[in-house]
Here is the input.
Amino acid sequence: MAEQAPRAIPSTGRLMSIDALRGFDMFWIIGGDAIAGNLGLMFHIPLLEATMAQLSNHVEWAGFRFYDMIFPLFLFIIGATLPFSLGKHMEQGVPKGELIKKSMSRTAILFFFGLLYNGALDFKGWDHLRIFGVLQRQALGYGIAAILFLTTSRRTQVILFFSILIGYWALMALVHVPGAHGGIYSEWGNMANAVDRLILRPGQMYEKYGDPEGPVSLIPAISTALLGIFAGTWLKSSRTEGHKVLGLFVAGLICIAVGLAWSPFFPIIKKIWTSSYMLVAGGCSLELLALFYFVVDVKGFKKLAFPFVVIGVNSITIYMVSRIVRFDDVAKFFVSGLAGLYPHSKDIILATGVVVAEWLFLYLLYRKKMFLKV
Here is the structure.
């Protein structure tokens, strides 16, 4: 790559690659996983089935698949946007107290959306309302990361990043609580799930043995958001575009290598967000950001990224609306005839129809410049 004059991204700028990466992430959540899963089953080819399983299914407990990084990637992206969003306001002289207040308001709204998603309006008593969840973790991760970004130095953030990873390992390895023993990482034996069972009712947890978004496993998720902050700060710097891509790529490789090396002692487990899992998922997130930044912002393939951008700029919108609107019924209305003509491809046709219906809905919002900003 030819050397370029160093230039910083304008503080008021917005990286299209981050919007595209967010849309790519949300694509798998709103139906891309179903497309991949049905594609793998359609041809009965073992290699294709195994590949599509990577894109559509979580591991049962220990281990790692591509689909296991979808959740932390979103939190990583939240962190990566902070140097651009909050950083811009700081450069404009907005008081930190005001920014913290706004960040906490956004945290509360996003947490409330998470409760709605979990069925708060269909209230059957607190004992049956799942308090924690995907949006709740995003909310808390954003809120804590925003406070750290606004109130601490980069050196402090780096120290916190490593301290959290090592401290969480020590917590899980050494601390004994009722129902669990330190150093045991099974579904029923680990400390994080034992704490869930102590403080939550059975109807408040996603699994019988605990909640994958419970309070203890929030601790290492903070490091995921911090890693995003480091990546966003790196992209906003005055380094050359080539150096930015290389830095993200090398950092991603290091994270993956350290996570894999740590895994024999602290297994890669998504449902309790182990430190090794955070490093592997975070490393993959860095690699994807490097790829998207290179393709979209460096090489300028913006038309190629546009379908993902449409999803990315309204990601929370489609996440919430898809919980309310039955897009599968919309898809059946338009493609059931086509699916009937090709019965062996029925499932993949319907799954594709759902994603197309959701995308067209988002495209209409995009054309009307209607964006849900929390």
Notes: The first helix runs from residue 16 to 43. Residues 1-8 have pLDDT under 50 and may be disordered. The radius of gyration is 21 Å.
